[in-house]
Design brief:
122 residues, 3 strands, disordered C terminus, 2 domains, three-stranded antiparallel sheet, alpha+beta
Length: 122
């Protein structure tokens, strides 16, 4: 019979591995946005925080934006849809950003855990 703490070590390793994957994806998103999209500037990658984020500025509005990734399959789609809808009302360019992220995710083979969880449509 395996020791109980073996499962804790495996679980901890899996979480650390997932967190590293998320940090790498955030780095790629930041690079893609910084070097491909006009009107976005002041990029800061805060990847070692409790919740890793990318901070940047949309120069046309001008507004500061924080972007993070959620790994949990239990996050609320309704809440996310409401947030994106509000962001789109404030600035219609959000739709283009979401479309860019969808294309990027598809090209990099990033798939949702559940087919009902994905970037919300505006």
């Amino acid at each position: 019979m395996p020791p109980e703490n073996m499962y804790l070590a495996t679980d901890s390793y899996t979480r650390r591995e997932e967190r590293n994957k998320m940090k790498n994806k955030l780095k790629l998103i930041a690079d893609l946005m910084q070097y491909s999209l006009p009107y976005y500037s002041h990029f800061a990658r805060i990847l070692n925080a409790r919740i890793p984020i990318i901070k940047f500025r949309f120069d046309l509005a001008p507004i500061d934006i924080d972007l993070s990734l959620e790994l949990s399959p239990f996050s609320s789609g309704f809440f996310m849809s409401s947030c994106l809808s509000h962001c789109h009302q404030v600035n219609p360019c959000v739709r283009n950003l979401i479309q860019l992220l969808r294309i990027w995710a598809k090209q990099h083979g990033i798939q949702p855990i559940d087919s009902t969880i994905y970037f919300n449509k505006l």
